[in-house]
Amino acid sequence: MRWTPEAEAWLKRVPFFVRKKVKQEVEKWLSAQGKTEVTEEDFLKAKQALRGKASEAREGFAVEACFGGSGCENALTDSKKLLSRIEEILKAAGLTDFLKGKVGGPLKHHNAFRVGLSECPNACSQIHIKDFAIHGRILLEVEPGLCSFCESCLEVCEEEAIRLSEAGPLVDEERCVACGACTRICPTGALREANRGYRILVGGKLGRRPRLATELVPFTDIEGVLSILERVLKVYQEENQKGERLGTIIERLGFEEFKKKVL
After folding, report:
1. Which helix (H) or strand (E) holds 8?
2. How many CB atoms lie within 10 A of CB 257?
């Protein structure tokens, strides 16, 4: 459906995390009235008619993934099957009814348990503000003795996580994001990819008290992701008081205590 510039200007005022949903609801409402274009007047009428409804969540969870599996050159993993299994676990947990009981009314988008998946460290799917986040990464192996001192790794590393010693490359694990760029350019195998898998982060959220997700597990495989998700959901439901986000629960328990409960 075509939007006039004036209507689009109003849409841009809507918070980004519900903008897509609002657009869909407005178009659906106007289509039912035979409209083929959204004008400023139409948008304001729809806004009045739909007030409150666009912010309601149909389910107690949401899953967002990047498009890496569709051919992105930066993708380190292809997680279509993983996403399907994640959704099965979320549905089996009965989160919609659980959260409705905790909230005591209609679910809003900010009530939902949010899962994010990024196929590489670029994190296009905003994994750092999700309750449970997964991002693809490599497991790096370093063999300094194989280094030819060509310095190609220094040139390609955007994080400046590599330096050359007399013995060969040294990697700063605090700066390295495990993107694999150095392994693809290293001509001798001094820097090589040992495996591919996932890093898990938990507790991210926006809202009044935003919180970036905290690393829970630095590296695991698909089965590890699924097992940890099930345990995180168990603690989330056991410790949830009023439908709060996982980050709030982690802050109340303390991260180390939370970690003990799920690992």
Report:
1. helix 5-11
2. 11
What pLDDT digit, counting tens, does each position of 133-185 carry? 999 999 999 999 999 999 999 999 999 999 999 999 999 999 999 999 999 99
User: Quick one: tokens of 93?
Assistant: 């947990």
- The candidate with the shortest Cα–Cα distance to 126, out of 136, 113, 135, 138, is 135
Amino acid letter at 40? E
Task: Report d(CA 51, CA 213) in Å as an integer.
Answer: 31
What is the maximal distance between C-alpha atoms in the chain? 74
- This model's pTM is above 0.90: no
pLDDT digits (tens, 9 = 90+) for 10-56: 999 987 777 887 898 899 999 998 999 999 999 999 988 887 555 55
In eight-state DSSP terms, residue 106 is P
CA dist., res. 94 & res. 100, Å (int): 10
Which domains can be identified in the chain, with CATH numbers? 2-50 (1.10.8.550), 61-138+197-262 (3.30.413.10), 140-194 (3.30.70.20)
Alpha-carbon torsion (201, 203, 206, 212), positive or negative: negative
Residues 6+ apart with CB under 8 A from 31: 1
Q: What are the Cα distances from residue 4, in Å, to 10, 30, 37, 43?
A: 10, 14, 7, 10
CA distances from 217 to 75, 133, 176, 198, 213 (A): 20, 11, 16, 9, 12
At 125, is the secondary structure helix, strand, or coil? coil
Residue 16: the pLDDT is: 78
106 vs 114, which has greater pLDDT?
Answer: 114
Please choose, from the candidates 105, 190, 86, the residue with its C-alpha nearest in 3D space to the C-alpha of residue 145: 190
